[in-house]
Write a structure and sequence with these properties.
- The complex is a heterodimer of chains A (about 120) and B (about 110).
- With about 120 residues, chain A is mostly beta strands.
- In chain A, about 5% of the residues lie in helices and about 55% in strands.
- Chain A has one helix spanning about 100-105; strands at about 5, 10-15, 20-25, 30-40, 40-50, 55, 65-70, 75-80, 90-95, 105, 110-115.
- In chain A, strands 2, 4, 5, 6, 9, 10 and 11 form a seven-stranded mixed β-sheet that branches. In chain A, strands 1-3-8-7 form a four-stranded antiparallel β-sheet, with no helix packed on it.
- In chain A, strand 7 (about 65-70) and strand 8 form a beta hairpin.
- The longest helix of chain A has 4 residues, at about 100-105.
- Chain A is globular, with a radius of gyration of 14 Å.
- Chain A starts with a strand and ends with a strand.
- In chain A, about 35% of the residues are buried.
- Chain B is built from no helices and eleven strands.
- In chain B, about 35% of the residues are buried.
- Classes of the chains: A mainly beta (about 120), B mainly beta (about 110).
- Chains A and B meet through strand 5, strand 9, helix 1 and strand 10 of A and strand 4, strand 5 and strand 10 of B.
């Protein structure tokens, strides 16, 4: 398996633009997580899905952020409109409840977002 | 909810042992994890310990768990420059499958 695949690796956009981050989880994993990492706030859980259904979105900062998982092999995190304070590294992770006790979460390489 | 705390920085000399500490609040955590993040990369699972264990050893890594004090530590023996990274401990929130990650400890290994 190629692991959790995120795209793009880097994104630079202007304030006010829409940004879409993409994630392909590991096949067979039934949980998908979106995290944001900044120097100031560390690693924050934004939202997670189980079997494509959002379970907890309490970490989504505001209405400008939305996440979808239309099927088991794809998820998006959208920011509209983007602001400079959204600049961060966004990670997607997937896991299997059955396997997790040994393998934990598998993280993607992240998308570094810069909003200018 | 769960809260996980770590010290931010640790600096050691190559060949010495490193000890990274973590405290957590949710006593119902069944598994506790250590992840490693190298520059420009995502987090990778390093090791885990089940809550009914006090210690787990895996080559150069030793995990110690003190459930009474809710204290977890990761010891790296014979630390190498390649061990320089950020180390995160993680604990699940009670009743959910959501892990809370600590702030991460940045380990710097001096040659």
């Amino acid at each position: 398996d190629a692991g959790v695949i995120q795209s793009p690796r880097h994104e630079v956009t202007e304030m006010g633009q829409e940004v879409t981050l993409r994630c392909k989880p590991i096949s067979g994993h039934d949980y998908l997580f979106w995290y944001r990492q900044t120097m100031m706030r560390g690693l924050e859980l934004l939202i997670y899905f189980n079997n494509n259904v959002p379970i907890d979105d309490s970490g989504m900062p505001e209405d400008r952020f939305s996440a979808k998982m239309p099927n088991a092999s794809f998820s998006t995190l959208k920011i509209q409109p983007s602001e400079p304070r959204d600049s961060a590294v966004y990670f997607c992770a997937s896991s299997s409840l059955v396997l997790d006790r040994v393998y934990g979460y598998t993280f993607g390489s992240g998308t570094r977002l810069t909003v200018v | 909810g769960e809260d996980v705390e770590q010290s931010l920085f640790l600096s050691v000399r190559e060949g010495d042992s490193s000890v990274i500490n973590c405290t957590y609040t949710d006593s119902s955590s069944t598994y506790l994890y250590w992840y490693k993040q190298e520059p420009g990369a995502g987090l990778q699972l390093l090791t885990y310990i089940f809550s009914n264990m006090d210690m787990k050893q895996d080559q150069r890594l030793t995990v110690l768990l003190n459930k009474k004090d809710k204290h977890l530590s990761l010891r790296i023996a014979d630390t190498q420059t390649g061990d320089s990274a950020i180390y995160f401990c993680a604990a699940p929130t009670s009743g959910t499958y959501k892990y809370i990650f600590g702030t991460g400890t940045r380990l710097k290994v001096l040659a």
